[in-house]
């Protein structure tokens, strides 16, 4: 364990702690609830998107130059600008609450009060520890409390929270909690199965593993309801 000792100091609940002291068993509910929000600075949106692109472009150019790349090469010339635009306007656009999808709810006219499951929602995110892709599928379920949500909004919500530097646990919880808020019910479940390229393409270079995380609220905490949901995920459908 020596090599893992005190990699860095972090602040948790206002207390300075060493990372080596952080054991998953000790994290507890308190940590989970305080870390569900993406850690952002207060001035995160003082700069406009275009100002951010200009600054990131300059910094990314420096990174490439330090790596020894020849930025006069036609193929590389445009890369700093491309990366900067991609960060701000595409893959990290979900950091900005202004980009949150508007959620329209409808009355549940047909009184459908069974579980609704939308499975295999593909998403692309990026690991906040290495800034390389997380590729996954999200399975989202809820039991209507009188209101229903447009199906495409479930995709949009997954996409919004995926487009941030993420950890899979937080992504799962952010989608679950947001859906609970929007639908006005605790009865929401999320399962995410994802591949982390920081595990596959570097580090331990494990190309076959995937990571599963789950969020169960309200009735989904009951074994029967949870089992029904998980059964639906196993159904193989051909279209
Ligand atoms: Zn990573």
From TrEMBL:
- Which Pfam families does its entry note? GTP_cyclohydroI
- Which Enzyme Commission numbers does its entry carry? 3.5.4.16
Which sites bind Zn(2+)?
127, 130, 198
Listed PROSITE patterns: GTP_CYCLOHYDROL_1_1, GTP_CYCLOHYDROL_1_2
Reaction(s) catalysed by this chain's protein: GTP + H2O = 7,8-dihydroneopterin 3'-triphosphate + formate + H(+)
Which key words tag this protein in UniProt? GTP-binding, Hydrolase, Metal-binding, Nucleotide-binding, One-carbon metabolism, Zinc
The record's GO molecular-function terms, alphabetically, read: GTP binding; GTP cyclohydrolase I activity; zinc ion binding
Q: Name one GO biological process term.
A: tetrahydrofolate biosynthetic process
Q: Which GO terms describe its cellular component?
A: cytoplasm
Pathway of action: Cofactor biosynthesis; 7,8-dihydroneopterin triphosphate biosynthesis; 7,8-dihydroneopterin triphosphate from GTP: step 1/1
Question: Residue limits of the GTP cyclohydrolase I domain?
Answer: 56-232
Q: How does it assemble?
A: Homopolymer.
> What does the similarity note say?
Belongs to the GTP cyclohydrolase I family.
Q: What is this protein called?
A: GTP cyclohydrolase 1
Origin organism of this chain?
Answer: Sediminibacterium goheungense
The opening ranks of the lineage are: Bacteria, Pseudomonadati, Bacteroidota, Chitinophagia, Chitinophagales
Gene assigned in the entry: folE
